[in-house]
Amino acid sequence: xxxxxxxxxxxxxxxxxxxxxxxxxxxxxxxxxxxxxxxxxxxxxxxxxxxxxxxxxxxxxxxxxxxxxxxxxxxxxxxxxxxxxxxxxxxxxxxxxxxxxxxxxxxxxxxxxxxxxxxxxxxxxxxxxxxxxxxxxxxxxxxxxxxxxxxxxxxxxx
Length: 158
Description:
- This protein is 35% helix and 17% strand.
- The chain is of the alpha+beta class and 158 residues long.
- Strand 1 and strand 2 form a beta hairpin.
- This is non-specific serine/threonine protein kinase.
């Protein structure tokens, strides 16, 4: 857990993009750790997708807004993969890790599993699979499917 915390602080501290949640600060004392992010009043995208309340989904997330959310997530991923000095592979893109601001603009969050790599590095090596079942790219749990790259995040995005 300590390694994931340090990894998240180091990774997200380098990022400044409209579709990436902004880290404002952090605290660490013994085994207690906290990350302080910008306030995201509409919580995660997961809340709306899996709410079971079709009213929320139909009234708040009209097709135009859903398109804006999808494009915002894609822009955030493109920045992580191409726009930073070091390429950042997230490895856990899923609705729970997409936070929504006041205007339902999406922001990618939770960089605990992220990996930094050189911009010219197309394939990365991992000692263990990273991600959430149901969203994890096949190559992350079986090397028979090919090398691990930014395409793993694209797979998770859908």
